[in-house]
Amino acid sequence: MIVNHLNLKAIVAATLLTVTISMPLAIAAGESPAESDLLDQLVSADAATARGLDRELQALWRKSGSAAMDLLLSRAVDAMSKGDFPAAIEHLTALTDHAPDFARGWYERARAYHAMGAYGPSVADLERALALNPNDYNAIYALGTVFEQFRNPKRAYEAYLRAKAIHPHHEEVLSALERLRPRVAGKDL
Q: I need a labelling partner for 2 at 20 to 30 A (CA). Which of 16, 44, 94, 186 fits?
């Protein structure tokens, strides 16, 4: 009986250790409970509350889990704010090389490429960002703007509708939908 009791303790300890180690991996593999809650709240929030939820989501999505990767992201964003897009792309390329599962790195590099007029690489990075985080309404909006630049208003409109479904109060999305509605849906008589 004592042997069985010791075995039971060992099994419980091993199970707790396995769960403790596996839990962060399970959360990292998909959206976190906090992200899921914020996204659920965002869909039904009023405009003022949506702004706060947006700030929380953006802060959450900026965290890579690595101080070094966060520093690369920070340097890249700083370079973009100064208009130094080649430096930003260098930092972001290092970031995406070392943290290929960090969606924000791909999104930010897409923004830098877009600012330089490199639309092909921008679209490729947006696709990667959205594969990693399909809820990033800013990346969806950015994809819509690229479709607009390629003179494909129908696909742009669809992208904007998708972004609006996630963030109903996104001002740029609402403006884009209003601008494209007559071209896509026709004009009221």
A: 16
Task: Supply the pTM of this predicted model.
Answer: 0.78
Element (H, E) at 163: helix 153-166
What is the full DSSP assignment across 84-146?
-HHHHHHHHHHHHHH-TT-HHHHHHHHHHHHHTT-HHHHHHHHHHHHHH-TT-HHHHHHHHHH
* Whether 42 contacts 167, CB under 8 Å: yes
Closest among 135, 148, 139 to 109, alpha carbons compared: 139
CA 123 vs CA 99, 149, 174: distances in Å: 19, 12, 22
Percent of the chain at pLDDT > 90 equals: 77
Query: What is the structure's pLDDT at 31?
Result: 55
Within 10 A of 157 (CB to CB), how many other CB atoms are there?
A: 21
Interatomic CA distance for residues 143 and 162, integer angstroms? 11
Per-residue pLDDT, averaged over 92-117, amounts to 96
pLDDT surpasses 60 at 30: no
